[in-house]
Amino acid sequence: MITSPHNEQLKTIRKLQAKRHRERTGLFAAEGEDLVDAAAAAGWSPEAVLRSAVAGVTPPERGTPHTYVEPELLDAVSSLGSGTRAIGVYRQRFSRPGGSLSVYLDGVGDPGNVGAVIRAAHALCDGPVVLGPGCADPYSPKAVRASMGSVFARPPAQAAFNELSGARVALDPAASATLADVEPAPPLVLCLGAEREGLRPEVLKAANACARIPVRADGPESLGVAAAAAIALYEAATRMAAS
Amino acid sequence: MITSPHNEQLKTIRKLQAKRHRERTGLFAAEGEDLVDAAAAAGWSPEAVLRSAVAGVTPPERGTPHTYVEPELLDAVSSLGSGTRAIGVYRQRFSRPGGSLSVYLDGVGDPGNVGAVIRAAHALCDGPVVLGPGCADPYSPKAVRASMGSVFARPPAQAAFNELSGARVALDPAASATLADVEPAPPLVLCLGAEREGLRPEVLKAANACARIPVRADGPESLGVAAAAAIALYEAATRMAAS
Fold it and tell me: Considering A27, A224, B72, B230, which has the largest number of Cβ atoms within 10 A of its Cβ?
């Protein structure tokens, strides 16, 4: 039972909130019982699991060894704040680009969006989410939380646009073709850019095709990147399955 | 120029972070220059607009009158924190259910999801997002932010499931039919429930049809509600336009 805020494991978890420390150590923290469970379900071995020693609660015995911590000490190192039940520390993993259908993100700096796209890709395609330059760290607490544990089942890849193979289809609101016009031949990589700026001109130019999601003329300036990725994955996956 | 933290307008904005105060007054605050601009673009007249008196920055003259505030005072009442440039106070509006295609949410308690669905509906359908029991307040700072201003262009409605007219299609991962099996005849209301629990049994039972979004067997437990709404709206809107 950990009762000191100076405990080394607690200090590690607190430091892992900083990207610099995640990069230096190659580790990350998953905050919350649901995420620790998702890691176990995906077969990941934690470096450590700390569980809140809540009075009267006996957590189920799990295969992974864990250490109990005084609740307020666990809360203090968690970005979830009060009531955090468990935090696991894991070694980061990255997949290789591939699959018959996958997603490439370029300059998507919001960790919530990166996590949401990882979750949608886990539901809808067989390839990983490939993170290009300027993307948020998929192993930040916010991205891991937004992925709802899909980072464990489907670790993202890291690559530049020109390292991708297959047909690279750039999502671009200014394209004349719509998604439904795109030949759903695998391997297909759906490419999306930042929320407002969209994809860089060099990516649009190098893409094998550009396509837009049909939206209303009186609609917002843009769809969110997470919504756009979900729609594009759904459209491509459905048509691939039917062809 | 407001230089006192005891200014009444600042106090009002701070209080509007609490749902209780929003309900009592019927007002809400939109934090950030982009949202204040979205309100003006949608023709909303603010009750007040406060702008940060950042040294050296002369904001463009706008039609809406505004008051300057010392930057740190504006930051202090904003949930965005440091660097807030503008906050507008508005009177809440609600639409009536309707349109050839719309969305009904039941028990969606996360304000980020409510805002994201309002944004997706603004892009993809002509009807409002109808909020049923247990939904997050669409006028909380987090929901307004997640809507990216679409609450102004397309204010949500509030109604119970049995008050809706038209074909009510319940999104349900356990349904045997898929979305593509649903007759895209207007008026159509796509109904979605909470992130994990899904729709309540009485809603599933009363719906005119139940349908699922095809997902991978090795995928996550569920799609996020915002991703599911975006996909369902896209599928229904595309097929309605083609029929």
Answer: B230
The amino acid occupying position B208 is N
- Give the domain extent around A15: 8-91
Same domain, B142 and B219: yes
For B185, the token pair is 């005849």
* Chain A residue closest in CA terms to B112: A112
- Low-confidence stretches of chain A (pLDDT < 70) are 55-64
Confirm whether B223 is domain-assigned: yes
Confidence of residue B82 (pLDDT cuts 50, 70, 90): confident
ipTM of this complex prediction, to 2 decimal places: 0.94
Q: Where are the alpha helices (DSSP H) in A31-175?
A: 33-41, 71-77, 111-124, 141-146, 150-153
Arithmetic mean of pLDDT over chain A: 94
Closest-CA residue of chain B to A221: B123
Residues of A in contact with B180 (CB under 8 A): 238
Element (H, E) at A102: strand A101-105
Please check whether residue A126 touches B, CB under 8 A: yes
**CB neighbourhood size of B9 (10 A):** 17
A10 phi and psi, to 5 degrees? -65, -40
Contact A123 B215 (CB under 8 A): yes
**Chain B residues within an 8 Å CB radius of A112:** 112
CATH number at residue A41: 3.30.1330.30
Q: What is the reported pLDDT for B111?
A: 97
How far B91 CA sits from the closest chain A CA (Å)? 21
Q: Which of B124, B150, B171 to mutate to test the interface with A (most CBs of A within 10 A)?
A: B124
